[in-house]
Amino acid sequence: MSCSVRANSSARTELPVDQWGGQAVFTVIVGLASVGLLIFPLDLRWRSLVAASVVALLWFEAPTVGNHMLIAALISAVALIARPWSPGWFRRAAPGMRAVSLISYSFAAFAKLNSGFFDPLESCARHFANQTLGFYQLPEIPARSPGAWLVIVASAAVELSVPMMLLIRPLRRIGVLVAMTFHLVLALDRLQHFYDFTLVLLPLFLLFTPPGTLTRFVGKLGGPTDPSAGRWVVPLVAMVFAFALPAPPAFKGMAVIGSWILWVMLLVQIVRALVSTRWSSPSLSWRGLIPMAPILALALLNGLAPYLELKTATGYNMYSNLVTSGGETNHFLVPATGGLREEGGDLVVIVETDDEDLAEYVDSGFAIPFVNLTDYLADHPETSLAYERNGERFVIDRAGDHPELTEGLPYLVEKLAFFRAVPVGETAECQNGWLPAR
Questions:
Q1: What is the chain's mean pLDDT, rounded?
Q2: Helix H segments across 229-383?
Q3: What's the first-to-final CA gap in the chain, in angstroms?
Q4: Which of 296, 281, 294 is nearest to 99 (CA)?
Q5: What does pTM read for this prediction?
Q6: Does residue 22 fall inside a structural domain?
Q7: Domain span holding position 202
Q8: Domain membership flag for residue 25
Q9: Is position 352 within any domain?
């Protein structure tokens, strides 16, 4: 998980040809349904379409799914169980949404308690702080400095304290303010996809405020009756198509710039609404969680998956420096992993290859599970490469000539239980994006 910024290490949006159509279609549906809900916020049909299409989009994006998309899909699944097409859906859904929020956020915070995150040289905290500072042409934080430790300790302390404050009634208001402020600051990093994570989390934090606060907060952002609200619609629709469908590079570039401008505009309104909205620390109702049990169980299992070694992709562990591989982990509080799938610890180091994407692993400090390599080579049978596995070196002229190298993974395993690359150095580097073979 590298703290040095590699040319192609940011979150990837390229898709295999067989997934292009489905993801593009549902990205457009989600985008247009969201715009429809923006214009008609009380229309239960638009709300239902958003919830259903977000869940479908998660499937087509898998396995390269960000934490924000996974949480959005879990929340949407809760909404669907609560029947968003009928009155009273929010009262039924709110307890489940709170529970999903606490489960996912707690696991994300817990993952930070590892030796890699607390290594000033490799910590994701320092890496992304410097990325933000560099974007705004500000001095970066040296690795061996009090500033590096301040960023690491502060970010871990905030994330660990937020779930506890949200659960403790006298601290709930402080918890909401701290959480929203923290993630608004993170969203200032325009080179990473933190703004989408922030936009998913903000309304979830408001679920821990008194009834009506979320409605008042949204109202202060400008609803469809606000003359200024129309300025969002056309740019949003244009960006939906620009990001989801094949388009000229210039058009996509304009969409990126437009998204930055819109984010700044939205950020200003969010801060204004945050400052002007008043709330107290209410008691929370947890009644009605039983119908949500399957979704809560999935959320919990997903958080446990890296420690059980069921999978390491999208386990609320992104940007955490966490390593769970081969029965071993760098976590302070977890002495060993469950090792339920031994293939997660069967690692391969790419030494040489003619494949442009796979070449990113050469001298990268990352190894990949052998099953990841075979899954990748199944789609790239013409690849030649040299790799090391279990201390032995293999030279392959053409992967397609070796059936054991091009088996691929079963469809459901590839979708639901993928492993990420594993750092092989003395410290766990910050993996700041999806690498080609995950």
A1: 85
A2: 230-244, 249-276, 293-308, 370-379
A3: 12
A4: 296
A5: 0.86
A6: yes
A7: 17-294
A8: yes
A9: no
